[in-house]
Amino acid sequence: MALHELKYSYRKVLDSFGEKVKFIHPDIFSYIALLVALATGILYYHSGKIPILLIINIFLIFLRMTLNTLDGLIALKIKRTSRKGEIVNALPDRYADMFYLIGVSFSTLCNFKIGIIATVTVLLISYSGILGKALGVSWQQQGPLDKVDRLVIIMVFSLIQFILIKTNPIWLENFRLTAMELCMLLFIILGQLTIIRRVAGMIKEINRIESDNT
C-alpha cells in the first residue's frame, strides 16, 4: 500500500527534532517503543470493558511509530548503524506485533481463534521478509501489509470499534462480527497475499541468480 511511503515523509518531519536528541543512544528509543507496545497490548485486552482505552491505544501506537522512526533517524545521524543495531531494530518489532495482536485476541472484542490466526499470519509476514536475506537475496518488503500498513489499519479499526460501542447503532445488532474481528480478518487476508508476493519475489531473484551462474 502507499501507506508505506508515509514513514519517509514523517522521517523528514522528525529530522530537526532528531538532531536535538541525537545525544541519546538510538537503542533507547527502541526499548521505550517496546514498552509502549506492551502497554498497548495490555490496554487492548481491557478495551472491551473500558472502550476509551481504544482511543488511548491510537495515540500509543502513533507514539511507538514515532519512537521507531527516531531510532533509525538518529542511528543514521551519528553513523551508528551495525549488525547488533539491526537486532535491536528488528526483534522488538516482532514482540510488539505479538503484544498488540495477543491483546486483541484475548479481549472480549475479538474471537480468540480469529485473533490467533491473524497473529500467526503477521509473524509469517515478517519471516517471509527476512527469509530472502537468509537465502542470499534481498530482504523482501512487498505489500500490501507491511508494518506501517498494519499499524494504520489497527488504529482505524480501533476508532471504528470505539464509535460503534458508544453509538450502538440498531443495524449492528444483526451483524455478528466486531470491528476488531474485521480488522483481524483483514490482517489474515492481506497478510496471506503479502506472503505470496514475498515468496514470489524470492523465487524470481533466485531464478535470476541461477540463470546468471549457468
- The proportion of residues in beta strands is under 5%
Radius of gyration: 19 Å
Looking at how many chains there are and whether they match, the oligomeric state comes to single chain
Any low-confidence stretches, pLDDT <50, length ≥5? none
The name of the CATH topology is: Four Helix Bundle (Hemerythrin (Met), subunit A)
Largest sheet data:
none
Tell me, what's the shape? globular
Return the domain count.
Answer: 1
Q: For this structure, what is the CATH homologous superfamily?
A: CDP-alcohol phosphotransferase transmembrane (TM) domain
Give the mean pLDDT. 86
CATH architecture assignment name: Up-down Bundle
Q: What is the N-to-C order of secondary-structure elements (H for helix, E for strand)?
A: HHHHHHH
Helix content: over 70%
- Helix and strand composition category: mainly alpha
Number of strands: 0
SS element count, helices: 7
Kindly, what is the distance between the CA atoms of the first and last residues, rounded to a whole number of angstroms? 36 Å
Q: What is the CATH domain class?
A: Mainly Alpha
